[in-house]
Amino acid sequence: MPSRKLRPGEIAAELPTTFDAGLYFIGRLRTPWARREDCPKNSGESQAVCTIELDPRYADGLRDVETVSHLIVLYFMDEAARDILLQAPNHYKRPHGAFALRSPARPNPIACSVVRLLRVEGTQLEVLGLDCRDGTPLLDLKPYFASIDAVPQAIVGWHAEEQG
Amino acid sequence: MPSRKLRPGEIAAELPTTFDAGLYFIGRLRTPWARREDCPKNSGESQAVCTIELDPRYADGLRDVETVSHLIVLYFMDEAARDILLQAPNHYKRPHGAFALRSPARPNPIACSVVRLLRVEGTQLEVLGLDCRDGTPLLDLKPYFASIDAVPQAIVGWHAEEQG
Predict the structure, then answer these.
(1) Interchain CB contact of A36 with B (< 8 Å)
(2) Taking CB atoms and an 8 Å cutoff, what residues of chain B touch A141?
(3) If contacts are CB pairs under 8 Å, which of residues 47-76 in chain B contact chain A?
(4) What is the 3-state secondary structure (H, E, C) of chain B?
(5) pLDDT per residue over A89-135, tens digit each?
(6) Closest by alpha carbon to B129, among B25, B27, B13, B39?
(7) Is the minimum CB–CB distance between A133 and chain B shorter than 8 Å?
């Protein structure tokens, strides 16, 4: 049985019965949005200053992070359905695959956001560019390297077509 | 006890005794490198064509992926130590925090690589830009949106200084 009522055109997968690996929640993201419905549709629509609270157990991992201008933040979208593969979000004209969307709903609901780092104070990081619910579990922080991560010419064909 | 012998200057964390969430391995990455030691140091150093083999169970999630020029690939670095927070890789002059490095060793060893999509054939995707071991478990595929993911002006201060 799918994890939520399917919309017309949607298809859900039968997920495996066991997991293959485990995740630690290493902190929490503090944002102005208490519920999922309140969140901006994507990080480009938000200029709110948010706080990443790292569990002090991992404090040693922050050495030199303050020299980084932008971070890749991986976090766990713990309210997302994991089984809906063909999805029909209300704001698009037709269904698209989970792997062609940035929707939270996917087999491993891990989001990947690029944020601007404003300040590090102990294990708290002030950043610009998050768009998730307050209290969202943090999975990882990585330095953003323009040389490997920036592809300004990248194109999402179906999206350009829906907008055009 | 740390998961591998620490190098001088390194610090390991005491990890929690239980996981907070689970991951599904949704496919495998096929690359020319059988062992971790053979892999290029980063994706910028590799122009090998690699194949992403998605488990056919998730095939419906690929709808419209063929219209995307670049994908974000999340994969699980299953041979990495998870507890080493302050790290002294051989190719850097001094130790840096795991969250200031793209090293596989981190509490949640999830890599995030941007690849160019060459071709989709069924549940096999030919891509350019992977640098991991053959057989590495796949966690997620996302379309790369230049509007939110491309930050050409990003700076990693400690790295620029070590190179400079």
Answers:
(1) no
(2) 99
(3) 54, 57-65, 67-72, 74, 76
(4) CCCCCCCCCCEECCCCCCCCEEECCCEEEECCCCCHHHCCCCHHHCCCEEEEEECHHHHHHHCCHHHECEEEEEEECCCCCCCEEEECCCCCCCCEEHHHCCCCCCCCCEEEEEEEEEEEECCEEEEECCCCCCCEEEEEEEECCHHHHCCCCCCEHHHHHHHC
(5) 888 889 999 999 999 999 999 999 999 999 999 999 999 999 999 99
(6) B39
(7) no
Residue bearing tokens 């569990």: A55
The pLDDT-based confidence of B1 (bands split at 50, 70, 90) is low
- Please name the amino acid found at residue A15: L
**Size (chain B), residues:** 164
Segment B28-59, tens digit of pLDDT: 999 999 998 888 877 666 789 999 999 999 99
Nearest to A60 among B68, B86, B139 (CB): B86
Cross-chain Cβ contact B64/A146 below 8 Å: no
> What is the token pair recorded at B153?
């002006």
